[in-house]
Amino acid sequence: MKNSDAKTSDEIVREAEAWWKTEIIDIHPGKIAMRGYPIEELIGAISFPQMIWLMVRGDLPTAEQSSLLEAALVAAVDHGPQAPSIAISRMAVTCGVELNNAMASAINVLAGIHGGAGQQCMELYADAARRMEQGATLEDAVEAALDAYIAENGKVIPGFGHRFHPIDPRSGKLLELVEAARAKGVVGGLYSRIGQQVEAILERRKGKRIPMNIDGATAVIYAELGFAPELGRGLFILSRSVGILAHAWEQSQQGGRIKGPMPKSIPYTYAGPARRAVPEVK
C-alpha cells in the first residue's frame, strides 16, 4: 500500500463507527435513547405494544393504535400443546435444556406453514390493495389477487378456514375492534373490507363458508395499522413467544424426561420392508 493510500487513525475510527449504522438506539455511558426518547422517560410512560411500535416504526402510536395492536398480540399468544411449536418447547424442556433453548427451538419452526399464514395473508391483502390503487373495484381486485396467489402457491388460502375451529372465536372479536377503530377514524377500513371480500369470494367459489381465522384477522389489523407484510411473522412470533414461554415453564414444573410427541403406549406406523437377513459380504 502506498503511503498516500494509508488511512489516518481518525479515518479508521470513523469507518468503524459507521460499520453498524442505526436509527433505533443511541447509547453512551450513562445514557440510553430509543428513537431519540430517553429510556428513563419511556419507562413507566408507555406500554409494551407502544414500545414495539416505536422500535419497529420509529414513532409513538396513538393510544387507539396501541390498543388495536395489543388486541392482535393478545389474541395469538397460544393455541394449546397440540400446536407444533408449543409441543416442541415442552419436549425440549424434558430433554434437559434451559427455558431460552426451549423457546428458541419452538420459535425456529414458526415458518411458512406453521406461523406464516398471517404474513402470507398480509401479502394477499396488499396485492388486492395495489390492484385497487390501479383502478380495480374491490371485488375485481380481490378476485385477481386470489387467482395470482393460487397460481403461485396452491389452493390453500392463508387466513381462512381452520383445522380445529369451525368458527375461530378470536377473529370475530378482532374484527369488531377494527370496525370500532374505523368508526373513530383510527384506521381506514380498507383491509377489513378486503378480508371480508376474500371470505365472500371463497364462499361463492367453494359453495360453503370458509370463515376468516386468527391469522386473517390479525393480518387485517396489522395491515390497517400500516405494518409492512414482511413484519407479519415477526409480530406473530412476539405474540406466540408468550405461550411458548408459559408452556415451557409449566413443563419444567411438571417434570418428565425425554417426552416424545406421543405416549409410549401409542405406537408409530412402520411401513418399511419386513425383517430380512443381511446378505453375506464377499
Automatic annotation (TrEMBL):
<dbReference type="Pfam" id="PF00285">
    <property type="entry name" value="Citrate_synt"/>
</dbReference>
<keyword id="KW-0456">Lyase</keyword>
<keyword id="KW-0808">Transferase</keyword>
<dbReference type="GO" id="GO:0008816">
    <property type="term" value="F:citryl-CoA lyase activity"/>
</dbReference>
<dbReference type="InterPro" id="IPR002020">
    <property type="entry name" value="Citrate_synthase"/>
</dbReference>
<dbReference type="InterPro" id="IPR036969">
    <property type="entry name" value="Citrate_synthase_sf"/>
</dbReference>
<comment type="pathway">
    <text>Carbohydrate metabolism; tricarboxylic acid cycle; isocitrate from oxaloacetate: step 1/2.</text>
</comment>
<comment type="similarity">
    <text>Belongs to the citrate synthase family.</text>
</comment>
<dbReference type="InterPro" id="IPR016143">
    <property type="entry name" value="Citrate_synth-like_sm_a-sub"/>
</dbReference>
<dbReference type="InterPro" id="IPR016142">
    <property type="entry name" value="Citrate_synth-like_lrg_a-sub"/>
</dbReference>
<protein>
    <recommendedName>
        <fullName>citrate synthase (unknown stereospecificity)</fullName>
        <ecNumber>2.3.3.16</ecNumber>
    </recommendedName>
</protein>
